[in-house]
Amino acid sequence: MSDFVRLGILETLIIMSIFYSKKGISVYFLSNTPCQICEFPGEQTLGFGNSPVNRPLTKVQNGRMRFDEVTKNCESKEELRNNLIKFLKSNEKNLPDSELEWRAPQAFEYLSSIYVAMEQGYGTRTHTVVLVDDEWNIEFYEDTMESPIDADNIVWKNKLLKSSL
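Request: output the structure for the sequence above.
Response:
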């Protein structure tokens, strides 16, 4: 755990606990929206953004579908990891989005992609992929902008940690 802490995992991950029950999955999560406890019946992909779960951003809805496509079409761990990083770096605009427009009327178009470019001094600076296989082997892969960040000449620094649970 100390390696993960040194990488800043506590700063970059949403605090989330998943509890399995006969009814489905209860998810407790912390975000910048009011606290909610939600039940999710059956098998499904969950996606979270800076909006309440019952009013997801368009990029979250589209992201869930793209995530499903990526995870179903990869034949190796490396291909999966690389395609997930590519997915996380998508700058495709997800518009229209009435929820995002309501939350950020001046910046909704700029914020509508999964990857938000740093050109306005705010944006995505780290991408993290955590893979756990059926034998409880874990890979923690992180792609982070090297500091100091120059928005015109971004240098990516990556780190791969492997362990077993």
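DSSP finds five helices and six strands in the chain.
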